[in-house]
Amino acid sequence: MHERIPRLPDAIATASGGKIVLLVADGLGGLPDPETGLTELETAKTPNLDALAKEGVTGLHVPIAPGITPGSGPAHMALFGYDPVEYLIGRGVLEALGIDFDLKQGDVAARINFATVDGAGMITDRRAGRIPTEKCAELSAELDTIKLPGVELFFRPVKEHRAVLVLRGEGLVGGLNDTDPQATGVPPLQVRAETEKEERTAELLNSFVSQAGAILVDEPKANAITLRGIATREAIPTFEERYNLRAAAIAQYPMYRGVAGLVGMNVLPVPDTLDEMTALLREHYEEYDFFFMHFKYTDSTGENGDFPGKVAATEQFDTIVPGVVDIATDVLLVTGDHSTPSLLASHSWHPVPVLLKSRNSRRDPCESFGETSCLGGALGVIRGVDLMPLMLAHAGRLAKFGA
Question: Which of 23, 52, 190, 311 pairs with 237 at a CA distance of 20 to 30 A?
């Protein structure tokens, strides 16, 4: 009987080679404005990305599979080379790790959204107007006083309307449904127990949501909460174990710091500006083999349905490129984790532009960095999970497969 074929590229990853920088503009992809026929990326003035596209090779990637709209966690796992269906990580776990919460085995973590509901209990704003982080911290301290029978409870602020709930105790399970209906004009959902094993956890979570609502009832915006990504932490192989890479992450938002930490990256201090992101890359460049750099605002403006705002955020992202190019002389890959078209005001299934520049990369006829131009790039349309082997290969970090 033949042995099982080892997973690629893990089995042929080497411990030496060039350095890799993965520069991610969250939610980068968009849809054409009906009046101009151009997406946010194609509308934006991006001279640096366009110049880089002329020097490298381009294409599009499908984050999960055709037609599947990804969450941020699965989309980033794919970028890191982890099959997001096999390694399905709950958003609650990523948020907890992102704020350096000491999440233990058996803990159940849920990402919290503060939300706005009307007098009939219908959601009018799923993000409570993106309340300031200071307000989130104030409300989180109040909700942290809630008591539930038989468990420890931790409620921690994250950023703006986001927070984390952690339950610690015996017999808790993850994998329960979200209570965010992903729509307005409808009430929040209840946590449902599909099996007898889930009943206690569902009862505890529903009790918490009810008590939280009573505390928040007089708040003008954040007068309710919803739960997302209810999960427990599972052990997964690290970047170093899989790829022989010492990896570091440069990101502002806790969730992305969390997913980087989950795969064993060293998460560097929070940068306040794009200049600080570049400075961190330069300061630590000799210490690591792989850098993940994350820019958030192309996603949040898209989720807000703000086409001009996403154009402006894309132009802001373009300004970081020269500094990164100056440092990342071996391999640089620029892409998004998924598309967040302003016209949909949500994540979508559309393929995402990719740009790869290295000493070993070919060139293609692409003259600019945009959805339409990248469609004609030499990389073609590939899976997000296949970007990691491409980066490793261009860095000279994959041995030949077979004789």
Answer: 23
User: 228 with 46: CB under 8 angstroms?
Assistant: no
**Angstrom distance (rounded) from CA 39 to CA 341:** 8
- Give the pairing of strands 20-25 and 290-295: parallel
Residue numbers of the domain that contains 181: 94-231
User: Sorting pLDDT into bands at 50, 70 and 90, what band is 89?
Assistant: confident
Nearest to 356 by CA among 17, 78, 21: 21
Domain final position from 231, 265, 280: 231
Tell me: do 268 and 174 sit in the same domain: no
Q: Which helix (H) or strand (E) holds 242?
A: helix 239-243
Q: How many residues does the chain have?
A: 403
Whole-model pTM?
0.81
What's the gap between Cα 398 and its chain centre? 26
Are 245 and 176 within one domain?
no
pLDDT of residue 3: 39
Residue 14 corresponds to which amino acid? Answer: T
**3 state SS of 28:** strand
On whether both 294 and 337 belong to a single domain, the answer is yes
Counting the structural domains of the chain, the total is 2
pLDDT tens-digit readout, 283-341: 999 999 999 999 999 999 999 999 999 999 999 999 999 999 999 999 999 999 999 99
Phi and psi at residue 268, in whole multiples of 5°? Answer: -75, 165
User: Would you place residue 5 in the very low, low, confident or very high pLDDT band (cuts 50, 70, 90)?
Assistant: very low
Let me know whether 38 and 109 are in one domain.
no
Tell me, yes or no, whether 142 lies in a domain.
yes
CB 226 within 8 A of CB 112: yes
pLDDT computed for residue 6 by the predictor = 54
Give the pLDDT mean for 111-137.
95
**Does one domain contain both 220 and 269?**
no
Give the separation between CA 345 and CA 303, rounded to whole angstroms: 4
Banded pLDDT at 214 (limits 50, 70, 90): very high
